[in-house]
Amino acid sequence: xxxxxxxxxxxxxxxxxxxxxxxxxxxxxxxxxxxxxxxxxxxxxxxxxxxxxxxxxxxxxxxxxxxxxxxxxxxxxxxxxxxxxxxxxxxxxxxxxxxxxxxxxxxxxxxxxxxxxxxxxxxxxxxxxxxxxxxxxx
Length: 138
Fold this sequence. Notes:
about 140 residues
């Protein structure tokens, strides 16, 4: 018997993640962008909930509110991101980046190391003059 938590074509083992309820991609970043998409989704669900079903059932405004509060919480957002599957990248032909980096030759550049005190003095700001108060108040 297959595990109910395996990912198969047409079967999502994680039902109703907040990203699915809100119609958000995991790559959406920025509070303003997320808030704008949530507001747009809430408006759509309030106007015609039967037009936007999720897993065969119509969503309500309460579902939108619950998903929004889960994404506002840091732990809830991380959990939702972990439960959301991203498509795998296709493997590229050719050497891996580590192999390409190992194949690079180290340049043989010998630079003379010298310190010019005059140039260093120009980089250091001049100290401000200190004005000391009189030691005796008379």
